[in-house]
Write a structure and sequence with these properties.
159 residues, mainly beta, Hypothetical Protein Pfu-838710-001, eight-stranded antiparallel beta barrel, 9 strands, 6% helix, 45% strand, globular
Length: 159
């Protein structure tokens, strides 16, 4: 059984950019998005993936991901996925022995920037980078699958 344990944070500044890491360009959409889980199609640079994720409980959920031909992924994004698609630049940054993913959203979610870390357990300790802000792991507005129905610019202010 594959379990993803992920915590998500806002950023308090953009000093993470000093890492100089080049982004991966991600485009993703959802074929199924329900209370029990999601089926996601993603293109990461020039590689396609299909991912099945279970319901999130705390910071954990079941996750199964498989590489698929990029042409198939493109067709599924275009023909089967809800719109708008989730588009973002992902910067993978090493800090304190962990890899952080900083996602800078584009398109319908322009302006949203979050950092994620994957852990081996929900209790696992980690060093917080100086650019890390408020934790939003439990806030479902930040789930990529929810950014389709309610894009970031449409949220009620304040965040």
């Amino acid at each position: 059984m594959a379990i993803e344990i992920e915590r998500k944070f806002l950023l308090k500044n953009d000093s993470w950019k000093a890492s100089g890491v080049k982004p991966l360009v991600l485009k993703q959409g959802y074929i199924m998005n329900s209370k029990t889980g999601v089926v996601r199609i993603r293109i990461s640079d020039s590689t396609g993936f299909i991912t099945v994720k279970g319901r999130t409980r705390n910071a954990s959920r079941l996750e199964y991901e498989y590489e698929i031909p990029v042409k198939d992924a493109e067709e599924m994004l275009h023909n089967l996925c809800e719109k708008p698609l989730v588009e973002k630049n992902r910067y993978n940054i090493d800090h304190g022995g962990f890899q952080w993913s900083v996602d800078q959203f584009l398109g319908a979610n322009l302006g949203l920037v979050v950092a994620e870390i994957e852990l081996d357990s929900e209790e696992q300790a980690f060093e917080r980078p100086p650019w890390l802000g408020k934790e939003v792991t439990g806030d479902s507005r930040y789930f990529n699958s929810n950014l389709i129905a309610t894009p970031y610019p449409d949220w009620e202010k304040p965040y």
